Amino acid sequence: MSELTHDDLCNMSHGETAFSVDDYKKGIPRWCPGCGDNGILNAVQKLCKDKQLVPEKTVFVSGIGCSSRFPHYMNTYGFHGLHGRAFPVAEGVKFRRPDLNVFVVTGDGDCCSIGTAHWIHAIRYNMNMTVLLLDNNIYGLTKKQTSPTSATGTKSNTHPKGSVLPPINPIQTTLSVSNASFVAQTVDWKPAHVFETIKAAYEHPGFSFVRVLQRCPKFMQDLYETTISDQSALTLLTHENGIKLDEKAEKGFKNIIQHNPSDINKGREYAEMTGSIPIGLFYQNKNAPRYDEYGAHNIGMPVKDRITAINKELDKYAV
Ligand code: SF4
């Protein structure tokens, strides 16, 4: 019998649609009306349907924050964990169950503050998972504190006169870690771009990091107001090997740059762009080493052999 592929194990591949979008929906999202998280959830559910991901072979892992409520609304397995700890949980799942589709949903407070150490090492470990950083530049769940991505001068409950430190740039940070393999950015108010970005991320064989600039109408009402109304406020990075949009969707952009995602130095340059927000694929390397592949070799080992292997390890410490 030929070896089963990841697609055989995680996806329906009988040539007929078995799961509808509704099959991936669960509960009624408790996000505020107009919250960008709602559209991102729709895009992910559509991806699951298009890829026919088997719900019991799919896991959503999150930390704490508004966006981390995500697993509650997916009719799959889920783990709503501890603040900043989504990555180690997801890595544990992927390491022992490489046959599962693993998604991480995290926020700017969760990933870029308390979870930073895990984030950095997760990039380096490059395990095959899709990571969505829903970045609203504020702590929303705890009602408006400055986050690591808040722009300097942001008025919040922790900084009523305006924040004083420059923000972290999550794209720049991710691109600076060794073994980064997929780094992209999108904005929640461009649904076609959100979907194509998440799709490319899912298809990437490794740790795909997607930062989604996300509206928080409750606490950051003005943040993207001008960006949304001004067509030149965004710059679309496009390429035949990057995020592809159809002609109609591309017409919504005034600034379009051809960027080959294999060029990390150019990707880093675009990550630091000012005056217009770059969206698209900054960098991709499909051949970066993946730590999850080291955990896969003994999956399915019979219990008897497993006990023998454990005893052999323990014997090394016999005195
Ligand atoms: Fe969304 Fe902001 Fe409401 Fe949280 S507080 S659900 S991020 S709009």
The shape is globular
What characterizes the major β-sheet? 9 strands, mixed
Uncertain ranges: none
Sheet-strand content, in percent, reads 15-25%
List the total number of helices. 12
Give the tally of β-strands.
Answer: 11
Structural class: alpha/beta
Order of helices and strands: HHEEHEHHEEEHEHEHEHEHEHH
Radius of gyration (Å): 20 Å
Terminal CA distance: 45 Å
Topology, pairings included?
Layout: H1 6-10, H2 37-51, E1 58-62, E2 77-80, H3 86-96, E3 101-107, H4 108-114, H5 116-125, E4 129-135, E5 138-139, E6 145-146, H6 170-175, E7 182-187, H7 191-203, E8 207-213, H8 225-229, E9 234-238, H9 247-250, E10 255-258, H10 264-271, E11 277-284, H11 292-295, H12 303-315
Parallel strand pairs: 1-2, 1-3, 3-4, 4-8, 7-8, 9-10, 9-11
Antiparallel strand pairs: 5-6, 7-11
Residues 31-32, 35, 37, 66, 136, 140, 216-219 line the site of iron/sulfur cluster.
Overview of the structural elements:
The chain contains twelve helices and eleven strands. The chain starts with 5 loop residues before the first helix and ends with a helix. It is α/β, with parallel strands linked by helices. Strands 2-1-3-4-8-7-11-9-10 form a nine-stranded mixed β-sheet, with helices on both faces. The protein has a two-stranded antiparallel sheet with strand order 5-6. Helix 4 crosses helix 5. It has helices at 6-10, 37-51, 86-96, 108-114, 116-125, 170-175, 191-203, 225-229, 247-250, 264-271, 292-295, 303-315; strands at residues 58-62, 77-80, 101-107, 129-135, 138-139, 145-146, 182-187, 207-213, 234-238, 255-258, 277-284. The mean pLDDT is 94. Residues 31-32, 35, 37, 66, 136, 140, 216-219 line the site of iron/sulfur cluster (SF4).
